[in-house]
Amino acid sequence: MARAKTIDEPSPADGRLLLGAVGFGIIFMLILGLLGTVKTGSLYNEVNLLFCALTFYAAATVLYVGFGVTGTQRFIRAAWIATWIGFISNTLAAAHRWYIAGHAPFSSIYEMLLAFVWAIAGLTIFIQWRWGVKVIGTITMPLATLGVLLMQLLPSEIRPLVPALQSTWLHIHVTLAMLSYAACAVSFGLAMMFLIQDNMSTEIFLANVSGLTVVIYGGILTRFAAGGGLKVVAQNPETGGELFIARGMPMMVVIPELGYLFAVVLAIVLAPLVLYAYARWKNDDNVFATANRAFFVSMLFQVVATLSFVLRMRGAQYAAANGEGVFPTSLSTSPFILAGMVSGLIAGMLYLMLTWRREGLQQMLPPSESLDNLTYKTIGVAFPLLTAMIAAGAYWANRTWGSYWSWDPKETAALVTWLVYAGYLHMRIARGWRGRRAAYFAVLGFAVVMFTFFGVTYLLPGLHAYA
Fold it and tell me: How far are the Cα atoms of 34, 230, 452, 453 from residue 221, in angstroms, in the given order?
């Protein structure tokens, strides 16, 4: 007798459809890359290798999410292959840049992001191979894809090392930093999976994702200009990078009406959070359902805002906000605004996947106790690396600047990161913390890591301004 097919079991045709679409997308992207190669006459270069890495990381992201939604095993096998190809391309791109530059690719935010993405992909492969956590890629590979996309917007020219960076300690310090940050990213993914497996309510995930998008759009609106515009950094026509009036003071231009649009989007992404709070207060499941519908609407408006930002930024000229005249701008001068919006969309899509496939996801995940232990083991790797990074940086700073510690913003943020993870280990070992409290610590730690890596670099410049 033929076995009856369950409701959640995907049909083979569904699997072939997604695999075919991903395969077609890969072929299309590679053809585009080859057309660019015909124009430049060079196949083996950093641009092509990173384009290949982006193509396969994006394919792996789609396949991992497809596996999370449907549970189709063939998706995870294809995602594993795509991740490997992307990782190899990423490795070759870093090696090529090292060879051309004559030094390790650790001297700028672009190069450190290159190493960070490489480490995330490598750890994804290791975690899946060593412990069989197949769904880890649904969180880590979107981070890798976003990282490579962000690299396309950052200044990538190779420059001679400034005197402060001409040291072997550069290799040691940054290698430790990128490996530790990547381990923190993986621990974040494992902690999120634990919270899913531990039956943390979907409504709390809704509140957290809504809170993230509120922070993103609230941060963007710090650039709100009088008259409803949005201030962005002007582009230097000669270098293609940011245009500065003076050291640390970029020339700002105003995109008309865009500030009003982002204000509307902020109000809309705030609505699910307000509805969640009201539902908790009234203990009304109907309001939770309304909050979910509001969240879906907010996703649509986020797409509109992202497309509007991209279209208004590309190849346009606007009036100066802190000077006279009209200046060009481009996506490369405000990369983290776009990265923030894309991050919000990715988080939203992962939440929708959780909403639609909560039970199926739980069946695919390892037991909650195993995820809790894996999070602990990953942080057990990350913390010594963080410690060694800070120690190596202090020793290098003393040799370069004559002081072990200067309370530079990047140093201070790194110390805060170290304290958060030290707190995690202390509370787990000394107080026996397990489960959700430990998972919250891991999530908080990764948020601090991201602020240390990106936020400090662009918001609080100091001695580490080049990084």
Answer: 40, 8, 21, 21
CB 93 within 8 A of CB 56: no
Q: What is the mean pLDDT of each run of 10 residues along the chain (467 residues)?
A: 42 71 91 73 82 95 90 91 97 93 84 92 93 90 92 82 76 91 95 93 94 93 92 84 78 93 96 95 90 95 94 86 86 85 92 86 89 95 96 88 82 92 95 92 93 73 53
Domain boundaries of the chain, sorted by first residue: 215-338
Residue 8 buriedness (CB in 10 A; 0-12 / 13-18 / 19+): exposed
- Quote the tokens at residue 286: 């109907």
3-state helix, strand, coil split of the chain in percent (to 5) is 75, 5, 20
Start-to-end Cα distance in the chain: 65
DSSP letter for each residue of 275-310? HHHHHHHHT-HHHHHHHHHHHHHHHHHHHHHHHHHH
- Give the pTM: 0.85
Task: Give the residue among 75, 128, 70, 129 at the shortest CA–CA distance from 363.
Answer: 70
Both tokens assigned to 361 = 């996801």
